[in-house]
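lol ok so funny story. i was supposed to be doing the assay writeup but got distracted and ended up predicting the structure for this chain instead. priorities right. anyway since i did it might as well share w the group, maybe its usefull for someone
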Amino acid sequence: MAEVGNELQRQAAEEHQAQTDGFHLVIDALKLNGIENIYGLPGIPVTDLARLAQANGMRVISFRHEQNAGNAAAIAGFLTQKPGVCLTVSAPGFLNGLTALANATTNCFPMILISGSSEREIVDLQQGDYEEMDQLAIARPHAKAAFRVLHAEDIGVGIARAIRAAVSGRPGGVYLDLPAKLLGQSMEAERGRQSLIKVVDPAPRQLPAPDSIDRAVALLKSAKRPLILLGKGAAYARADADIRALVEKTGIPYLPMSMAKGLLPDTHPQSASAARSYVLAEADVVMLVGARLNWLLSHGKGKTWGKPKQFIQIDISPTEMDSNVAIAAPVVGDIGSCVSAMLDKIGNGFAKPGADWLGAVEERKDKNLAKMAETLSRDVSPMNFHSALRALKDVVKANPGISFVNEGANTLDYARAVIDMYEPRKRLDVGTWGVMGVGMGYAVAAAVETSKPVLALCGDSAFGFSGMEVETICRYNLPICIVIFNNNGVYKGIDVNPTGGNDPAVTMFVKGARYDKMMEAFGGVGHNVTTPAELEAAVNEALRSGKPTLVNAVIDPAAGTESGRLTNLNPQSAANK
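and the output, tada:
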């Protein structure tokens, strides 16, 4: 009888081992498709999912706020061309992640927001479950696609559809709803394994129509004052060599949008960044490569664009064409295929622009760069934005492989014009929406995905949105150096309450705040600096050590300006008119 009992126990153990559940199927599906990292925040009902993911070899970066985890997942997608994954709890946690999801969709970053949720039968009858919310309905307007999985055998399909939706065509954010009951569902392990899907060619090439290439090349050849405008879509495409070849073969001046900086070094002789206002106004044919004529480019019309012009637009989405102005030569397809086709058509017989156009651009560049150099050379006390940026400009030049994260108002505007980038996908900033608070999430993901140091430059206002993540940076011992330009307020630190009352002005912060002490509180390194030399030394020390570091850079409270307008992207912009 004892032998029979032992055999029954053995059989029961084998049957137990032959089972799997929703938790493991989600993890197995992600790993099968090459997803290695999860950014999120544990809690009911996804705590065990996060624990098991870590136990099964995935890297789980646990944040202090879901929005920052979502921003990390979004920029991870931009950096890797694989969807970054953000994991949140239900209702409030989901809503915190939703802002990042919407921002990812707007910026065309591939991301999947996975959230636990209440059971459908309770939500639909509005019976008052814990954190009850119809999350799928809320997510749909803000995502490229949204799915809910109700049965364990469909987890493989749900993950596969989410991956393909996130990266195919124009990338974007995808929501995947996993009710709590789903994760605990069990099924036979072998049947579960067979239900998983490895996505084949999730972002297939989309070849342009040959006649669209002919039309675009013909228009480009006819131009007297051509301009190539590179957007972050060009950086995402990883067609770096062909884009550089197209620029150099044609000899056309090019203008990079902020996150396209470094596709070619900003010091490249054909870069027209220092003459931005001039080339936008004077060009007669503008070729957009992965850039959209949205508010960052004044919608392609108005005073910014000056003389009449024709547009060539390379974009993967046909509906982007004519969205603001007429596009004379639309080229629809993935950027790599389109640029390659244009190179083949151009061959070696392309006549470069005339000396009058190139000379005029060069003259404007030299004039503005000289004025900028003069501005940067001034030693003022206390530091202003330009003197502080001079130090960081030198640091980035000496360390071109680091990721540079940038957010703020004046801190963003001035840094974009002053700090040169030398390698692609190294400048990460607020992008299409101009959303503040992306800094710490972007910095964490850049450190995790690239395994290289990160320099994050934030205004004191922008840092406030995600500053608690310094604890996350210290907890994971990430090689991130945060520099805060601290001028005691939003734009300026000298505003006063117009009523004369005791409350500070609405744009004012605590004077003399020591943000460096926050980093020290969690075991990182803090510096308080007041001169460019001290700033440069502190940042170089951080990059050498690889230790989590925060540099509180004291800026003249009166140095800012109430702008923050991302359309003012020029060095000495007034001189560029």
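The domain at 210-362 is CATH 3.40.50.1220 (Rossmann fold). The two ends are 96 Å apart (CA to CA).
back to the writeup now i swear
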